[in-house]
Write a sequence for this structure.
């Protein structure tokens, strides 16, 4: 029994199940993920990171603790460490599981397929919350329940905010776009041009779900009413078009059509106008955040302390606000500029190395790299205008994506990278 639990295959299955089911099971999956971290440490007894990356993680960990010691409200600051420490710990050991391209492709495909129900529910929620539905439909219990939720006419499914739903779906969309290319290249590079009927049928179903899951993300993002999500999705489509000449025209027309439709009809029940963009209250929040940063630039005010420093009603649109709608600015204000710089070094170093490998990696591995880079680009771009890491589902996804990119760099740097 002990040998079974310590086997890599058991840990992989436990991680795969808990990670893919996490959006649905949420806190019920935490014990399984904690077990994954513990079992990996017991089995390998060391970090999976290179010396530089490991030292960056250690420095960030220490400075976050120091920032909490000097926080304006220490209790809140130490509580907020749970949004960082478990994920940093997972990041240090997860690459042990991600050896070879096969598990990375498998986990990406699983996530895309698992998100299909989320997008379908988002579409139903958006429809039932629309103002023009028939009166008889509006009186149904399901419609009443959806209409009683906050954020009028915007879908949020099981997430706490429509923007959190959009933040999750842009990550899935990035994976889906890259995995479509990966499946094409993998099929073209196959040594067996005439697969068995069983494997062909399985591949066809998987391919259909892959395309459906990726396309459904656009529907879910639209239903969320997130302008930020729409812009990030458009950027992902345009970037993907640069790497797929055969689909460039189709993707370009799709992106233009999505943007034009959103401008004409609004996004998830929200009208888009130049006045709304120009008068976005985020600008006022950013000014206030910079004023806080100027007062305590080195160790910050403490994690979770931004909301405690915000005077209620300072900005008319926000009686209460938990963050400055920019992750990097929040990190600087709450943890200090040194932590911000170390985070930028950690993330930037991995992303730059991954982009460089796009030029030299074999086509299938290059497509897999593109999938994870597009997904992580969704994380970085969304973080410029919103903060969603408080949702554990999104936070976990961010760190798994970063771990996957790190693992892919190690794979593609090998002289003969094979599955």
């Amino acid at each position: 029994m002990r040998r079974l639990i310590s086997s890599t295959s058991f840990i992989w299955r436990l991680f795969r199940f808990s990670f893919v089911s996490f959006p649905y099971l949420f806190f019920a999956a935490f014990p399984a993920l904690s077990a994954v971290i513990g079992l990996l440490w017991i089995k390998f007894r060391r970090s999976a990171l290179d010396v530089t990356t490991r030292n960056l993680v250690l420095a960030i960990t220490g400075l976050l603790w120091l920032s909490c010691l000097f926080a304006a409200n220490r209790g809140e600051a130490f509580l907020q460490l749970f949004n960082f420490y478990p994920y940093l710990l997972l990041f240090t050991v997860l690459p042990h599981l991600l050896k070879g391209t096969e598990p990375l492709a498998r986990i990406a495909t699983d996530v895309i397929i698992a998100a299909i129900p989320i997008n379908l529910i988002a579409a139903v929620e958006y429809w039932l919350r629309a103002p023009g539905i028939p009166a008889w439909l509006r009186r149904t219990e399901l419609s009443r329940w959806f209409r009683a939720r906050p954020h009028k006419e915007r879908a949020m499914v099981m997430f706490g905010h429509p923007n959190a739903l959009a933040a999750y779906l842009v990550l899935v969309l990035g994976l889906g776009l890259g995995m479509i290319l990966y499946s094409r290249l993998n099929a073209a590079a196959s040594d067996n041009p005439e697969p068995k009927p069983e494997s062909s049928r399985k591949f066809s179903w998987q391919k259909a779900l892959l395309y459906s899951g990726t396309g459904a993300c656009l529907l879910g993002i639209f239903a969320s009413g997130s302008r930020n999500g729409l812009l990030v999705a458009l950027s992902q489509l345009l970037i993907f078009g640069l790497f797929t000449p055969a689909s460039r025209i189709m993707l370009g027309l799709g992106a233009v059509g999505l943007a034009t439709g959103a401008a004409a009809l609004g996004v998830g029940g929200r009208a888009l106008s130049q006045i709304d963009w120009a008068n976005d209250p985020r600008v006022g929040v950013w000014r206030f955040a910079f004023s806080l940063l100027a007062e305590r630039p080195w160790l910050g005010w403490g994690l979770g302390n931004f909301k405690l420093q915000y005077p209620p009603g300072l900005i008319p649109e926000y009686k209460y606000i938990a963050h400055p709608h920019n992750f990097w600015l929040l990190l600087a204000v709450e943890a200090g500029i040194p932590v911000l710089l170390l985070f930028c070094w950690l993330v930037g170093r991995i992303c730059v190395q991954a982009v460089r490998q796009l030029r030299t990696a074999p086509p299938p591995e290059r497509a897999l790299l593109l999938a994870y880079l597009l997904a992580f680009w969704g994380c970085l771009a969304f973080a410029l205008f919103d903060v969603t890491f408080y949702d554990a589902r999104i936070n976990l996804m961010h760190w798994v994506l970063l771990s996957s990119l790190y693992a892919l760099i190690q794979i593609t740097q090998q002289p003969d990278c094979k599955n």
Q: What stands out?
A: The chain has two domains: 1-46, 51-412. The longest helix spans residues 197-224. DSSP finds 21 helices and no strands in the chain. The mean pLDDT is 87.
